[in-house]
Amino acid sequence: MQLFLMRHGEASFDAPSDRERMLTHNGRYQTGQMAGLLSNHISQLDLVLVSPYLRAQQTWEVVSKHLPKARKCVVLDDITPAGDPRRAADVILAYAEQYKADTVLVITHMPIVGFLVSELVAGVEPPIFATSAFVQIDKHMEVASLVGMNYPLAG
User: Fold this and answer.
1) pTM for this one?
2) CA separation (Å) from 89 to 53, 63, 109?
3) Quick one: DSSP state of residue 76?
């Protein structure tokens, strides 16, 4: 399975709650740039798991325009910023198994996205993700390896 973990794009802090923070103009731009790069790695998309927070939903809205149509998309409460990484990793893998997904995209937040990497790939310290950054993990059976991490260009 190819698993892509992506942090949402840059978001404004001007919102009634953390859940309602919206992408900035720059956040949409950077997300579009990263989605173009992501499209070079994804020829089919079996499953998308997205946080219910607005900025993650908006990130998926931008990314989806650059990728093949997802076979299944699920809004997942377990991948919000304060989610439990171990539980989130288990839930992600369970959904992938349920939908027999070979290619999975997860759009989530810091800090959980970094902790998910260390939960899924043994011996890897949790990386810090820039907004719109994504990592690719190659997971087969019990073995997972970090393929690479991609960051947006400054601009």
Assistant:
1) 0.95
2) 18, 22, 14
3) -
| Cβ proximity of 79 and 112 under 8 Å | yes
Residues 114-148 have pLDDT tens digits of 999 999 999 999 999 999 999 999 998 777 877 77
Q: How many helices (H) and strands (E) does the chain have?
A: 4, 6
Mean residue pLDDT across the chain: 94
- DSSP character at residue 79: G
CA distance linking residue 139 with residue 102, whole number of Å: 9
Helix axes 54-63, 25-39, angle to 10 degrees: 50
Which token pair is 144? 């997972």
Q: Dihedrals φ, ψ of 138, to 5°?
A: -100, 115
Structure tokens at 94: 């369970």
Phi, psi of 140 (to 5 degrees): -130, 120
Which tokens in the block code for residue 59? 């990130």
